[in-house]
Each structure stands twice: as C-alpha cells, then as structure tokens.
Amino acid sequence: xxxxxxxxxxxxxxxxxxxxxxxxxxxxxxxxxxxxxxxxxxxxxxxxxxxxxxxxxxxxxxxxxxxxxxxxxxxxxxxxxxxxxxxxxxxxxxxxxxxxxxxxxxxxxxxxxxxxxxxxxxxxxxxxxxxxxxxxxxxxxxxxxxxxxxxxxxxxxxxxxxxxxxxxxxxxxxxxxxxxxxxxxxxxxxxxxxxxxxxxxxxxxxxxxxxxxxxxxxxxxxxxxxxxxxxxxxxxxxxxxxxxxxxxxxxxxxxxxxxxxxxxxxxxxxxxxxxxxxxxxxxxxxxxxxxxxxxxxxxxxxxxxxxxxxxxxxxxxx
Length: 318
Ligand SMILES: [Fe+2]
Hints:
Elements: H1 3-15, H2 17-35, H3 45-61, H4 65-71, E1 76-85, E2 95-99, H5 112-119, E3 125-129, H6 141-152, E4 160-163, H7 173-178, E5 181-183, E6 187-193, E7 196-202, H8 214-217, E8 227-230, H9 237-242, E9 247-250, E10 259-260, E11 264-265, E12 279-283, E13 286-290, E14 308-317
Parallel strand pairs: 1-14, 2-3, 3-4, 4-5, 7-8, 8-9, 9-13
Antiparallel strand pairs: 2-14, 6-7, 10-11, 12-13
The structure holds fe (ii) ion.
C-alpha cells in the first residue's frame, strides 16, 4: 500500500467511508465552481477577485490600506472567564488558548508578530478552530508549514487539538497532525487532570461542507460529563444546544473583519443571530464563544475589529 492509499484507509477507519466520500465530492464540486469557465455557473473566482482588487485600490486611494494591513496583525488577547456548572474544581482556572481562522499563508508580517506574542503566553491546552488556508481552494502546503511554525511558539501542557473549517480540505489532516495538532473529525477526547476530566469534542465543517455530526462526536462522552465542542462556525448553535453541549467554541465570522466604528459588522458570512457573531453569548442552555479570528481572509485588512488570541479561563461553579 502506498502513502496515499494508506492516508485514505486511515481516514476511512476514523470517519467512515460515507463521510469521506461526501467530503471529497463536495470539495471537488466546490473547487470546480471556482475554476469552471463558461457553462451555467455564475460563481467565478475572477469575479470574487475583482471585488477585492476594487476594495484594495479604493482603500489605497483614500489612504487607509496600510492602516488596514497593520490592524490585521495588531493582536488583542481576549481573556474570557468561562463559568461552567459542575466543572470539576481541578479545572478551576484551566486555560485554553484558541487560535481561529489563521489563514496562515497570507499573514501580513508572515506570522512574526503572532509568534512573538504567543511566545509570551502560557496555556494548559491549545485549540485551533479551523481555516488554516487563505483561500478556499488551491495549494495548501504553505498554510500548513506556517501553521506548524506558529504552533511551535505555544506552550500548552495538555496538547493541541483542532478542527477543519470551510477553507480546509480533509487532505490537510496528516500535515496538521504531523505538527502535533490532533484534528477532531466528529470525534472527542477526554482531558484529564488530577483524577478529574472533561471532554473536548470537535466536528468537521458545517458551514460549507455540511460534514458535521455532533451526535457522533459526542458518542463516547458520558451523559453527565462537561463537554466543550469545537465547531468552526456558530451556525451549529441549535444542534449543539439540543445535544447538551456545555460550551461551544467557534470562529469563522472574523467578527465582520471590516466593521463600522464600535465593531458593528456589515457582513459575517454566517446564518445565525448577530449576537452570536463575536464574543461570549448564550442560547438557551448553551454557552458559546465566537472568536473574531486570528487572521484575515479575502483581503488581509481589518477595521474596528482587531484580530484576537483567545484565552478561555475555565471557572468551576456549583
Ligand atoms: Fe470559515
């Protein structure tokens, strides 16, 4: 068996043949929409690029382009206290560092600022909530290599766990896992400390590929255990609440990326209530947090919406 066959066999073993076939067909269909010329499809990368080229030159014309680029690497560290009922006291003050939407191959300063910032931080566990590549199609080697360099700067004693986003192909998994990031594909893992435990579950992308399965991800989780779910997008909030998830951690929206003063977003690319598009939120029994993202996509500028590195500090309540 060659390396490629081995890779697909391993994935079939992990996610099942149906999931893998669905993911691969949807990736091909989506990529074809970008590259197809003529025919009936109206969605061409050429059109998308024109919009961003126009925006780039408009920002240059009004003298704001460089400011936008600099803003895209002006990281804000968000320290979020997360109060979870029935969290074992052993996890009180447990720190989970989240990076989301890194789009790592197109960071304005090639990741230098992010790496320097991360070197100064300490966490118990690190999570990466998808979108490692700048575009949704094309080469991904550089994105994975840059992600590896960034992750090397992080000190997280309980390891690195990630999920895929809508910019990521399932073929990213071996490269990311080589760098020590274990990708959760509708899977879960038990996190243990001093005889206590909580569960970290992660789903495949729901936004574009609709390959998520929360119930499968939670299938090995005891009913009374505290569960933190990694979902690329907040759009899974209804399902996550129904499934009894305690805390949903996501990104994808970039908080709008280019916002009005006060951080009011114009466009967040997510079908969910506005309040779920950034920061801490609650929906019925579900507590959630949506990162504004660590990177930028389409055009690497930000306005009134700084990129973030999030530290979720777990707090035990009775
Ligand atoms: Fe995304």
